[in-house]
């Protein structure tokens, strides 16, 4: 059973005869303890406060039965790790045809949606999570309440933990409400930039240890594994 904030994505799943419904990751309309396993891929990094990011993890834990497992993937601040560049960086200016979509090991269809709020009212909480993490060399800090969020340059290293990522809508002739697919247009592609509307999506990219620290702050789960995978920080949880 799948769920997503985007009705278009849920409709696509329905067309393919999969079970999916529209909901918010902060409040999933399913019974507590009803799931053997939960997967959250590329979701939590779109929430703009540390409290909300933690609340989504707590909501995942609520859905799990005792002994149930959850897998979480979030975008990493460190796109170069142990002297290895992520696929995201390697594809910089490397595509002369269609720009590949960001993925976490599998091809994903990504839809445009409204940019999440960029409130930083949780800076104290976020600072605490970062300071509790095993971060080594990641000195990016949460954006201040009076600051503007930086706009990221696609296929480059991150310069801030809180930022906006440009998304270029494929098929500029479609109306916004009719659009389905989005792609990352190459930075030097003037043609795509002229034809495609540009949307800015909010991301909070996680430093090493930050996701694990957030998970360990909950007493209802145990961290079974924490690892790095192609530009993502990943955690496997077990419900106690």
UniProtKB/TrEMBL annotation:
The keyword Signal does not apply. Residues 113-131 have a biased composition (Polar residues). One of its GO terms (biological process) is tRNA methylation. Residues 113-150 are annotated as: Disordered. GO terms for cellular component: cytoplasm; nucleus. Keywords: Methyltransferase, Transferase. Residues 1-72 form the Methyltransferase type domain. GO terms for molecular function: S-adenosylmethionine-dependent methyltransferase activity; tRNA (5-carboxymethyluridine(34)-5-O)-methyltransferase activity; tRNA binding. This is ALKB8 protein. It comes from Mionectes macconnelli (McConnell's flycatcher).
